[in-house]
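Backbone shapes recur. Consider a single case.
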Amino acid sequence: MKYKRDNIKEYMKVDDRYIDKGNPSSLPTGERPGERLYFVKLFRGITSLLTGMKTTMTVFCRKKTTEQYPENRATLKLSDRFRGTLTMPHNANNEHHCVACGLCQTACPNDTIKVTSEMIETEEGKKKKILAKYEYDLGSCMFCQLCVNACPHDAIMFDQDFEHAVFDRSKLVLTLNRPGSHVEEKKKPATPKEEMTK
């Protein structure tokens, strides 16, 4: 409420008009100073309470979204955008798409990823860098997905596995590339000469 002091008189603004607190004769018949202000505040309080109760009852009648974990492990459904654990998908031939470029390691803000590469010589006599070991520290990962966004070959992704409780932090350091795995070779397009011979 707004108060105004003028010529040692106090006024209260109620219903867009000022009431002189020092002169009860300016009030309607039988109304004491501050009586109308009390009812105005009471009405506003009840209105505010009903507004809050309306919101409460609306949420109360909605479909429940609480998951009864761990009892519902078999039927638990997570959001498609949920980020659980970083993984490196492999196909049936134990091949992956990682070329050991190191962009994911550079993009990681807290050094969660360590890419170890090595140089080999191909059958054509060319030198080629391949992935030797891809280490991922789940204990220091903050699931920002910057590594996934930085990868130009979509070699890594987040799955929906979220049960990471262990008693030893060293078990959180994972090697994502499987033993004996190698990068998937791109099929070279057939040259015009080869097509003509066929």
